Amino acid sequence: MTDLILHKDQFCISTDKAKLDIDSIHQFLSTQAYWCLNIPKDKVETSIQNSLCFGVYENEKQIGFARIISDFSTIAYLGDVYILEEYRGNGLSKWLMEIIMNHPDLQNLRRWILLTGDAHGLYRQFGWTDIGDPSKWMELHNKNVYS
Questions:
Q1: Which residues pair with 57 in a beta bridge?
Q2: Which of 1, 64, 107, 144 has a 20 to 30 A CA-CA distance from 53?
Q3: Domains, the chain, ranges and CATH?
Q4: What whole-number distance in Å separates Cα of residue 83 and Cα of residue 66?
């Protein structure tokens, strides 16, 4: 898989894991991300090692992140998407989604999935819809795993 590095003004999106600021990502996910509050740093590190990651940077400062879990053939799960609050409103999450959805290794998948509590409008701009038949979906969810 080839690393992508794309620039727009003073911002950059990269899939190079060596650029990722693990401390910054862990800080956001463990203290501000409603979906994984208190996540241990070692869990974040392992999740990054096993995912296709997209870092968003202003110059060299990490200001956003997203990761994909995929077999790169049939399915992809989009998770841990964020832009730091002070950088929101600049079109960065939309640009991040454009880069993710157009990544060459994520084309022609049968299914994409994600969970969101508040960003439905963003994802709908890229063709995402509510689950058509929720009765077919199941989950095993331990919401207190990091407590």
A1: 12, 62
A2: 144
A3: 5-136 (3.40.630.30)
A4: 9
Cα 66 to Cα 93: distance, rounded to the nearest angstrom: 10
pTM: 0.95
Taking residue 144's Cβ as centre, other Cβ atoms within 10 Å add up to 7
